[in-house]
Design brief:
The structure holds 2 protein chains of 2 kinds. Helices cover 37% and strands 28% of the residues of chain A. By secondary structure, chain A is α/β, with parallel strands linked by helices. In chain A, strands 8-9-10-3-11-12 form a 6-stranded mixed beta sheet, sandwiched between helices. Chain A has a 4-stranded antiparallel beta sheet with strand order 2-1-4-5, covered by helices on one side. In chain A, α3 crosses α4. The termini of chain A are far apart. By secondary structure, chain B is mainly α. Chain B has one domain: MetI-like (MetI-like fold, Orthogonal Bundle), CATH 1.10.3720. Helix content of chain B is 71%, strand content 2%. In chain B, α3 crosses α12. Chain B starts with a helix and ends with a helix. Classes of the chains: A alpha/beta, B mainly alpha.
Amino acid sequence: MSDVMVSAEGVHKRFGQNEVLKGITLTVNRGEVMCLLGPSGSGKSTFLRCINHLEQINAGRLSVDGELVGYREANGKLYELHERDVARKRQQIGMVFQQFNLFPHMTAIENVMLAPVQVLGRRRDESRQRACQLLDRVGLADKYDAYPVALSGGQQQRVAIARALAMDPKLMLFDEPTSALDPELVGDVLDVMRDLARSGMTMVVVTHEIGFAREVADTVVFMDGGVVVEAGPPAEVLGAPKHERTRSFLSKVL
Amino acid sequence: MEENELTQPGPGRPDDIRAVPVRRPGRWIAAAIVLICSASVLRFIVTDPAIKWHIVGRYMFDSRILHGVIATLYLSVAAMALGIVLGVITAIMRLSPNPILKSFSWLYVFFFRGTPLLVQITFWYAITALFPNNIISIGIPFGPALFHPDANAIITVFVAALLGLGVNEGAYYAEIVRSGIISVPEGQSEAAASLGMGRIKIMRLIVLPQAMRVILPPTGNEFISMLKNSSLASTIAFAELYFEGSSIYSVNYDTIQLLIVESIWYLAMTSVLYVGQYYLERKFGQGFSRSQRATLRERWFSMGARTR
């Protein structure tokens, strides 16, 4: 088993004429927490969405756990993967969205149980038990039967994290998980993510929370204009940035 | 609890305002005009000897009328079911990435929404004329035929009415379903996809249940239209409520009385739909509002209270 979880080499992504990713090369190791920082429009969310094939890349190579994302390579040719196989790979990658995207017609516990029962074919009682454990873990032991509409943003986002964890993913992607939250609710969500990082989960986090990146990340990547400007340990990138662009960004957000 | 604290007159708290309301004479005049007009119409309906209410009463539960009520019900329910199935399939085809399926569903909606229902019903009834010797050939397209049923045995007046109403309804219903599906935010499908669900599961478990909230109110509307439009099947001699009523008055000339009988039955049938629709909407509205477990009666009275 290799130590590399995500490997990107020269990843390009276009929307029409607009090139959003202009050659991203980076590696996320197993158990590593990587934070992607950068101004809006820098392509960090797009790159995150490419990792579980919500967006299809136009050029380069992107692989998760040693397998190409969205394609199969045989005899020097790329074959598009069948939807079924894309879905199977996504089961192992958890994703948390800026807008939570909880299923509003289901209670918190139904949101968490749904995929294990419907996708993995697990038994309902077993899945319910596991869902309870997960909701307890994110601090929502008293909200099992609440509909998302009755939960605060911070609570909804924690249900969303529990929902992703219920699939026992080997990689978790976070797309600005705290950007839609009131400032006083951000802390609870970051606490849950900090715990998760400590438990050894491999995580790629797009965020504007510099404090969180400094404390939790193993690697910080600063992106701008569709390229990686600099990457390294937080002490280097955040403490002593080499590039002018990074310095000016950090001076604005800190 | 909080509310009590707020409304309790404390030492520093001023009394609630008790102002004299604005006088609105216009409202009183409008109400009086409406009341006077309805009273005079009601007096005419109840007391006019020409209406002959006893005849209405006599035919209300006549066996021919009851037979017509049942025929109207099962034709409407069957045609609505056919329309819903065709509508859902057509809407999903319309939203598929396949250009042939997309164009086909567009054409279906274009054709069946754009021609009169009466023409369509008559067309299905007359379709047997298209088959030589009234024999339909069913088999592999452009290949050998496997069955040769008699067209007249298959296209009965019921089948013609069912096809006319159902296929027409499908065209309207497709647009209703489509608007419901596109009302569900894309993030929902993305979240479901990122959990490893395939397209069919996403549609069935995530998108359609949420689309139902948008689809249901117009469905009630369509069902009511269907009940009334089913009377068009009388033109091809399908013995539903209107047909039965008019065949009675064509003999005894009690036209008004039988039309009243029919109207009362149509109203009774649509009333049942209102109740069903309310409870369905409540079921599929779950999770979209914080307070919503009211019964129909509670809602009716609370609505009055709120507007006052």
